[in-house]
Amino acid sequence: MPTTATSIRDEIRRANDLFEASFERGDAAGIAGLYTSTGVLLPTGMDTIEGAGGIQTFWQSAMAMGIKQVKLRTRDIEELDDTAIELGTYTLFAAGGQQVDQGKYLVVWKEEAGQWKLHQDIWNSSVPAPAQ
């Protein structure tokens, strides 16, 4: 039975809710588990990060740098069979709810073993670089 657009949106929202909750708990392994087995991160200013171990290490490092909370807001989802493309915005917070970054992201989602998972994840800040 094919997944409907509404249920794909619901699954992506559920996964994003789990991402946010896992981040607040400091559970980088839980976040890594939301990615496909061949998941890829494409962070600004860094090389590509591949696989569960690299993804877990990346998010653990972000937490160690003082990021305590992330909020994700979906703007649009385009559905393509067993793939979906999500366009959204993010906000990062430090301790005490202090906003430290905001920006936009694009995630390619894949259905893997009956679950929608992040497959390719790219984002960049909307905060201007400091003047030189």
TrEMBL record:
<dbReference type="InterPro" id="IPR027843">
    <property type="entry name" value="DUF4440"/>
</dbReference>
<dbReference type="Pfam" id="PF14534">
    <property type="entry name" value="DUF4440"/>
</dbReference>
<protein>
    <recommendedName>
        <fullName>DUF4440 domain-containing protein</fullName>
    </recommendedName>
</protein>
<dbReference type="InterPro" id="IPR032710">
    <property type="entry name" value="NTF2-like_dom_sf"/>
</dbReference>
<feature type="domain" description="DUF4440">
    <location>
        <begin position="13"/>
        <end position="118"/>
    </location>
</feature>
